[in-house]
Specification:
The chain is of the alpha/beta class. About 40% of the residues lie in helices and about 20% in strands. Strand 1, helix 2 and strand 2 form a beta-alpha-beta unit. The longest helix has 26 residues.
Length: about 240
């Protein structure tokens, strides 16, 4: 995690002095929740549950927690339906949000490994060398109004900064709540849903379904509610 924190600081230092104010400043107005897999794509398989079912349950717990606190929520899927990665990005990129606020994207996934000994919690952000086309011919009027004064490079730099901050906050809050569970930290990766969404985006790997202990824990409603609270706390920390 330390390497990513240093990269986060480097991004701040390298931004031009005259750069416009952070376009992702103020409050988060809308959270797009992506429950990984679904329908004909079960994701990783545990002894008793499938990834697609766990991700949907956790996503619904997060939805409830956010709505109770007054956030707008958009779900990429609300049932056991099949969506392509591109369709998930389309849902996120077309989501409405208050003009005075900004949206974020949180994708929920479950890890798996060949060994039952693998365990722990981690959060992914997009690789810094991947550029998102923030403003193009499909850009909504609201996006154009809010962000057209920024260059694509500026928007990508700020997207990376806020994404890293959110990922780091989720890991920190999780470690505080579950100090006995291994913390694998913040990682970067070439992941479609992070590369294809214009707003700050993270992908949360909640645990390892290949570990019987973690599979059982992730299926508990109380654990899912606590995980939802952790993610919301990190959002409010932004």
């Amino acid at each position: 995690m330390m390497g990513l924190r240093l990269r986060f600081l480097a991004l701040l230092m390298l931004l031009p002095v005259m750069l416009l104010a952070n376009p992702y400043r103020g409050d988060v107005g809308t959270v797009v929740i992506d429950a990984g897999h679904g329908g004909s794509d079960p994701g990783a398989l545990g002894q008793n549950v499938q990834e697609k079912d766990l991700t949907l349950s956790i996503a619904q717990a997060l939805q409830s927690e956010l709505e109770e606190r007054g956030y707008g929520v958009v779900m990429t899927r609300e049932d056991d339906s099949t969506l392509s990665l591109e369709e998930r990005c389309d849902v996120a990129n077309s989501a409405d949000f208050p003009i005075e606020a900004y949206p974020i994207f949180v994708s929920i996934h479950i890890n798996s490994a060949h060994s039952e000994a693998a365990e722990g919690f981690e959060v992914y952000v997009k690789s810094a060398d991947k550029r998102v086309d923030m403003l193009d011919e499909a850009t909504s009027d609201k996006l154009a109004l809010k962000y057209s004064s920024y260059s694509n490079a500026q928007l990508n730099a700020y997207k990376d900064i806020v994404s890293l901050s959110l990922a780091d906050g989720i890991c920190r809050r999780y470690e505080e709540a579950f100090p006995d569970i291994p913390m694998r930290g913040v990682k970067s990766g070439d992941l479609w849903v992070l590369n294809g969404t214009w707003m700050p985006s993270v992908l949360v790997e909640v645990g390892f379904i290949s570990s019987p202990e973690e599979e059982a824990r992730m299926a508990l409603p109380d654990y899912q509610r606590k995980l939802a609270e952790i993610i919301v706390q990190a959002i409010e920390d932004l």
